[in-house]
Specification:
Elements: H1 2-14, H2 16-47, H3 49-52, H4 64-97, H5 99-104, H6 110-144, E1 149-152, E2 156-159, H7 161-193, H8 196-213, H9 221-226, H10 245-272
Antiparallel strand pairs: 1-2
Helix pairs in contact: 1-6, 2-4, 2-6, 4-6, 4-7, 4-8, 6-7, 6-10, 7-8, 7-10
């Protein structure tokens, strides 16, 4: 199993699209920062003009904390889309090149082989989120400095600079669980569909529908609290004035169950497939 995991890590970091993905994430961050620099201060001044007469804000409100929060909001669609292409492509390319058949002709257990891909996909997703967090903090705080954070989430919430940083850090940490969910879904889709184009289109459609359904009120307790789409924005709870830790823990537990179930389904389908057809 260890050798299988190491082989998957090698293949993932050997392919060029891995580095294109990292470059794309970094470039998106640069674009967000540039847009904020050119337009953000004027918008903030207009929105908070009356509040500034009644409240004192420490530092410039267009600061690294606000920029980090903006990047969080914009990349939770772009990042899973990149991960879908990257993670699923690692398997669909093996279907296309017939290298998967060569591997299966070796004394390799099918369930161990595909489980190693899921393990590497999960670890790699954590690393991608870590990369995103580090580059966000470095760029945002280097160019915009520190300051209080203002967030509009069920009303205006204000957080001091040190508190804002902790909340953003927690948001990245728990947000990684959502990214892992989309990564394992994309790998399971690759197992089922086998072809890159079909997998990417289906994965993108799944992501779009998931984002559209987040704000839908189903008026059903189970759907509104247990359906996976209602769990993917759990990281937003860190920007409520009082953090609802119990809700966060429950959502994370349920989403983790979805991840495990998706992995199990993928392993079962792969082990029953005739990969040599």
């Amino acid at each position: 199993m260890k050798n299988l995991i190491l082989a998957e890590v090698y293949k993932l970091f050997k392919q060029g699209k891995t580095y294109y993905a990292l470059g794309a994430i970094f470039l998106i961050e640069i674009i967000i920062l540039f847009s904020a620099y050119s337009q953000g201060q004027g918008i903030l001044d207009m929105v908070l003009d009356n509040l500034k007469q009644s409240f004192h804000f420490e530092g410039n409100l267009l600061n690294g904390n606000l920029l980090s929060y903006l990047i969080l909001n914009t990349l939770w669609f772009h990042l899973p889309l990149i991960l879908i292409v990257l993670i699923s492509g690692n398997l669909t390319s093996e279907y296309k090149d017939k290298t998967l058949l060569s591997v299966m002709l070796q004394p390799v257990s099918k369930w161990k082989f595909i489980l190693s891909k899921y393990i590497v996909a999960i670890v790699f997703t954590f690393l991608i989120v870590l990369f995103l967090a580090l580059t966000t903090f470095i760029l945002a705080y280097s160019f915009f400095g520190y300051g209080d954070l203002i967030v509009y989430l069920d009303g205006l919430n204000f957080f001091e600079s040190s508190d804002a940083f902790k909340r953003i850090l927690w948001a990245f940490s728990f947000g990684a669980i959502s990214m892992i969910f989309f990564s394992v879904v994309s790998l399971t889709l690759a197992i089922i569909l086998e072809e890159s184009t079909k997998t990417w289109i289906t994965g993108a459609f799944f992501l779009i529908v998931s984002n559209l359904l987040i704000k839908v009120n189903f008026k059903n307790y189970f759907l509104d609290n247990w359906l996976y789409v209602k769990l993917n924005d759990t990281w937003q709870y860190f920007f409520h004035f009082s953090i609802p830790w119990n809700k966060i823990y429950v959502n994370t537990f349920i989403l983790s169950l979805y991840i495990i179930l998706t992995v199990i389904i993928g392993i079962i389908i792969f082990t029953k497939k005739d990969v040599g057809k």
